[in-house]
């Protein structure tokens, strides 16, 4: 068997391969040199090595990786197994999809379209951008979110392919396999999907429906241990639609400070709050807790398909230091960041979107939420919780009054079959016997959906006084 070695040198001009001669590369570099730009590759040749290589595998046996096997989206895992055959006599009303563009009644502002059109026509954004985003685009985001209470510069901004990638990068940069993260229950299912796939454990802290889905601080603190790598906080909330008060957020920050726990703040619905409510960005309330705040264009600007997100690094005491920042840079290099065309439009979008666009959107969402809350509050067996922001309302099911159903999955499945209304069962959020309604549909559709839900519940509701023989009739 013969063995040949090659040194592959990476420099500004590309790749150069040098054969090894007498212990030195043909280009003069010593054999086995270590460094950032030189890698030695050994290539074994000869019939004996070829025979060994062939003997390793005698048949096809291609299996998915452990990461692929562990990756599980709870929404898809549950919904895909449901029997979702609508009543053919009623048009389908899907109140399950967190995409505000589905029904066409909530278009983005024309200024947003014009910004993208100009970026395309400029022909300046067709190539690769730096993996963390163009400097000018990062400056635009930093300027938009800069606050005396939470100062930001371009170096504190990482642009990502949607808020989902921002969340993924944050979990991966803060956590190792065997660590645990704390996530809200009910909470956005992606946190768990990302963590479990890479061997990070998940602990669910309770939210309290009777207190507008505030965090159960006592329960949260009981879950923290030496392997806890970060706390995930969603405000405003998906799926709950809650918006936390300044005082409640300060209570959460106090716990994080006490236990030296960094926070991943999912603020994709930041400022998407109903008129009369106030959103407090978490970083403006703390000077010592390091916070990675995730956001993006998707929801507030009603363009989820544009895949533009960001991470805002708030670290005034330099707890993260250079290592976390450099870790984020390295992770972005896997897919080279966000869409360059949208990056090119970003400054104009942030500067020129008129305030009346935001107000119109949140006013519509509040009105639809009030319709839904009012209509379902008088339905026996249901308990809606009025939201304060985002695009969702949670509705509790008193499952004991619906003996024909085992749980929320069964309940929502039958509602599709009988009434052609699909609401998301909250088992997908690890919180059974509620369902989530998306309030972005046109008003007349919301009224029709609520009427059908009422009819469905009236048909299946049973008072506790009825015995089992009556229930079967």
TrEMBL record:
One of its GO terms (molecular function) is L-tyrosine-2-oxoglutarate transaminase activity. GO terms for biological process: L-phenylalanine catabolic process; L-tyrosine catabolic process. Keywords: Aminotransferase, Phenylalanine catabolism, Pyridoxal phosphate, Transferase, Tyrosine catabolism. It catalyses: L-tyrosine + 2-oxoglutarate = 3-(4-hydroxyphenyl)pyruvate + L-glutamate. Pathway: Amino-acid degradation; L-phenylalanine degradation; acetoacetate and fumarate from L-phenylalanine: step 2/6. The keyword Hydrolase does not apply. PROSITE patterns: AA_TRANSFER_CLASS_1 (PS00105). Residues 23-63 are annotated as: Disordered. Its EC number is 2.6.1.5. Its cofactor is pyridoxal 5'-phosphate. Pfam families: Aminotran_1_2. Residues 92-453 form the Aminotransferase class I/classII large domain. The modification N6-(pyridoxal phosphate)lysine is found at residue 299. Homodimer. Transaminase involved in tyrosine breakdown. Converts tyrosine to p-hydroxyphenylpyruvate. Belongs to the class-I pyridoxal-phosphate-dependent aminotransferase family. This is Tyrosine aminotransferase. It comes from Merluccius polli (Benguela hake). The lineage of its organism: Eukaryota, Metazoa, Chordata, Craniata, Vertebrata. The gene is Tat.
